[in-house]
Design a protein that fits this description.
By secondary structure, the protein is an alpha/beta fold. The chain has twelve helices and eight strands. The longest helix is centred in the N-terminal third of the chain and has 15 residues.
Length: 262
């Protein structure tokens, strides 16, 4: 069932299923996409008996237009949705931007049953100064290019499985070039914030073994270095959107994680 919640200048759209389930999984999509990117995971989660809240993050998908967009705002939106729905102790799963929102939620709110991220490096740990600066100014590298070229680049960087490329193009093309660049600058480019925190529930972080986006793969082991209850994994034959390139492995990992933390 599609539901909405008005918060801070944005009508948030999300889908809720299996409301009476003992464990509800919150799905948070990647940047420039929407909740439909979780197509390969939705049916297995519901068939396993889990509840689901599949969110279009503010400034994305049907949660547009939005007055403002930051990772912290998106995490607060998730908290507001969970309170409105009366959901306690959810399990949060996010890909890329969604993985940043998962971490921000853990730091600002906590109380989840578990945290599961795909293709998202840790955002609160120390980074070399040059990497922080490069990310902070990364929106500038998009500005010289036309929208069609940017979309083609994003698609090729996202998924190796070309059968998903038309669907990714549909999602990306819901945006304008200016929306994309401005939201990237306000959200992703400014998400690294060195901060002492701990995950109050188990964390599983993974990425494709062929993920070439940014420094995600390079920094995946940092989860183990800084967080005691973290585990990591690599998804075989997968790029950034490992949930599309290897849904079988992702689904098994996610279902096992849910079963272990229900």
């Amino acid at each position: 069932m599609i539901r909405t919640l008005l918060r801070e200048g944005c009508e948030l759209h999300y889908r809720r299923e299996n409301e009476t389930a003992a464990l509800t999984v919150v799905l948070l999509h990647g940047f420039g996409l929407d909740g439909s990117m979780w197509q390969p995971q939705i049916e297995p989660l519901l068939e396993a008996g889990y509840g689901m809240i599949n969110v279009d993050i503010r400034a994305h998908g049907d949660s547009r237009p939005a007055q403002g967009f930051t990772v912290a705002q998106a995490a607060a939106d998730v908290d507001a949705i969970l309170r409105a729905e009366g959901v306690r102790r959810p399990l949060l799963a996010g890909l890329s931007l969604g993985g940043y929102v998962v971490q921000q939620y853990a730091a600002d709110f906590g109380g989840a049953a578990g945290y599961f991220t795909i293709g998202a490096g840790p955002i609160f740990t120390p980074y070399p100064r040059w990497e922080r600066a490069a990310l902070r100014h990364s929106a500038a590298m998009f500005r010289p290019f036309g929208w069609k070229l940017l979309v083609n680049w994003m698609i090729s960087a996202s998924a190796l499985d070309k059968s998903w490329h038309d669907e990714l193009r549909r999602m990306f093309n819901r945006y304008t070039r200016d929306e994309f660049i401005n939201n990237w600058d306000a959200g992703v480019a400014r998400c690294l914030t060195e901060r002492q925190m701990r995950f109050d529930a188990p964390l599983f972080a993974c990425c494709g073994d062929r993920d070439g986006v940014g420094t995600v793969k390079k920094h995946l082991p940092d989860y183990l270095r800084y967080y005691d209850n973290a585990r990591i994994g690599y998804i075989e034959g997968a790029s950034h959107m490992a949930n599309l390139d290897n849904p079988r492995q992702i689904n098994q990992l996610l279902l096992d994680f849910c079963a272990a933390n229900a």
